[in-house]
Write a structure and sequence with these properties.
CATH class of the largest domain: Alpha Beta
GO molecular function, one term: methyltransferase activity
Number of strands: 11
Order of helices and strands: HHEHEHEEHEEEEEHEE
InterPro entries: Methyltransf_25 (IPR041698), SAM-dependent_MTases_sf (IPR029063)
Oligomer: single chain
Keywords: Methyltransferase, Transferase
Structural class: alpha/beta
Organism: Brevibacterium casei S18
Pfam families: Methyltransf_25
Length: 241
């Protein structure tokens, strides 16, 4: 198994939160519309499918979806919600599903769950091995926020509310990072870290090239807003010749 955090049963039970912005209907509509177009009438594989936040509405658009998921508790939640979506337990660097597909996708910064460059390179190779000729690999990821780091500072806050404080600590040498979450739990706060490796868009392009994939497009979001130097995230598409 690769070096990656594995979501626990407690995290899986609390993952689906309708109040979380990532579950916003408008966001999921834009995400699945983009992915359905990229699938071009074929089938899809979601790496790190989780509890089906994207896979279930994508299937409702008529795209057959298969998943790979490292966390058994997350896969159990998906099976409870959508037992007809096949899920294989394993890591996204080596785990295979059957057949060739027109789309492989990896959303919500999950490429960073692989905390070494070698593992991220292997993920691209695994994605390419699932694709038929002409198939696409789509990755949604943040742009590393290093421009927000003053000299000598290693932490960047991303959420500060009465109920939650979140900040990332970043190591520019190794590109290893940790998201620190302090969540109010009654009169106290519950601490939960998440480890990841941040990766630049240009670095992903090189990983794609090593996997035999060609760049097709890069956007700032699922609505195809042009990607610029100020974009905090990107949706990138590579195609198998």
């Amino acid at each position: 198994m690769v070096d990656s955090d594995v979501w626990t049963r407690e995290q899986a039970q609390n993952y689906d939160d309708a109040e979380d912005p990532m579950f916003a209907p408008a966001l999921l509509a834009a995400t699945t519309a983009f992915l359905a177009e990229a699938a071009a009438g074929g089938s899809a594989v979601e790496f790190a499918i989780g509890t089906g936040r994207v896979a279930i509405p994508l299937r409702e658009r008529g795209v057959p979806v298969t998943g790979i998921e490292l966390s058994e508790p997350m896969a159990e939640r998906l099976r409870q919600k959508a037992p007809d979506i096949p899920v294989t337990i394993g890591d996204m660097t080596t785990t295979r599903t059957s057949g060739e597909h027109s789309l492989v996708y990896l959303v919500y910064n999950t490429i960073g769950n692989l905390v070494t460059q070698d593992a991220q390179v292997a993920c691209f190779a695994n994605a390419a091995s699932h694709l038929r000729p002409g198939g696409r690999f789509v990755v949604e990821n943040t742009v590393p926020p290093l421009r927000r780091l003053p000299p000598g500072q290693s932490a960047v806050p991303f959420d500060v509310t009465d109920e939650h404080v979140g900040f990332d600590t970043l190591d520019p040498v190794t590109q290893r990072a940790t998201s620190h979450h302090l969540t109010r739990d009654g009169a106290t706060f519950r601490y939960s870290p998440h480890h990841f490796r941040y990766v630049w868009p240009s670095e992903l392009d090189l990983m794609a090239r090593l996997a035999g994939l060609e760049p097709e497009g890069r956007f700032a979001d699922w609505e195809r807003t042009p990607f610029t130097a100020e974009s905090p995230s990107h949706v990138s598409v590579w195609r198998k010749p």
